[in-house]
């Protein structure tokens, strides 16, 4: 299976630069994963497309304001840090731009010295291991100095940084939003619950490895970066009861999907667990838990479009993307949604 098999032409004007005024007013493409039949709808009607007894699984991670702009001590040169993963209390794996300024031993400051940093090692694929110094609580300092780590294809400034958080976000730790969840409002979630649809929460802290390009020709040679996930006893019980009754498990986003499949047992149930997952799902994968998926429209040749194709088929999904371009759906983080069922 070749990476180029997942390429499609995407006009730049279809990349959504800003969120809609109302979260649930995005368009919704509904795809039958078996037949390829496509319907066009709006996200606020999602409750009509779910059945009582089904289970909706949401990722309640919260995005850190992980983008820091500062200067190199001694030279004053501008530098940008993007926090990827906490290693220890004050030590983080970080992307630094420009990287040539970040040799081991280099020191930086942010906010006039409110936060100081030193490069102590070189990580994978050019990342830097950084030790921070500060007074007080790191998260408070970060909240004061940090910016939302919007993807590079979004060039407009985000006016309200809560719009890059889901309404149910809870546990801080992500370098990017689980964007399929951005469409939900509190009212919509209440309507779903009122219909008798179970709502369960998992946590997967999204790392940038999810979005890194596939640089190999053969899909099977790609290696995913590990991301931390958590599933508690209540969620595992809800999912297992849903499966035993014959209900469908609907993952909201590829992060929820990967968490569910990472926690799967051979008997088709899940167990409460936490740890690191580097699961890579692409066509040919046999799903153990996930029956349906709510997701956004993804980058060409990305691991995300490969995962989506695995739930249906490459032919059906690539055809759906071709139609999405023709019908001028909005793409990527602030774009429209797809329900594959």
Calculate the terminal CA-CA distance, rounded to whole Å: 24 Å
Average residue-wise pLDDT:
95
Helical run tally: 6
Integer tally of domains: 2
Strand and helix order:
EEEEEEEEEEHEHEEHEHEEHHE
Shape: globular
- % residues in beta strands: 25-35%
Per CATH, the architecture of the largest domain is: 3-Layer(aba) Sandwich
Helix content: 10-25%
Low-confidence stretches: none
The CATH superfamily of the largest domain is known as: QueA-like
Q: What is the CATH third-level topology name of the largest domain?
A: QueA-like
Query: What is the spatial order of strands in the main beta sheet?
Result: 2-1-17-16-14-3-12-13-15
Number of strands: 17
Based on CA atoms alone, the radius of gyration comes out at 20 Å
Could you explain how this protein is built, in words?
With 341 residues, the chain is α/β, with parallel strands linked by helices. It folds into 2 domains: 242 residues, QueA-like (3-Layer(aba) Sandwich), CATH 3.40.1780.10; 79 residues, QueA-like (Thrombin, subunit H). Helix content is 18%, strand content 28%. The strands form 3 sheets. The chain has a 9-stranded mixed beta sheet with strand order 2-1-17-16-14-3-12-13-15. A 6-stranded antiparallel beta barrel has the order 5-6-7-10-9-8. α5 crosses α6. The longest helix has 13 residues. It is globular. The two termini are 24 Å apart. The mean pLDDT is 95.
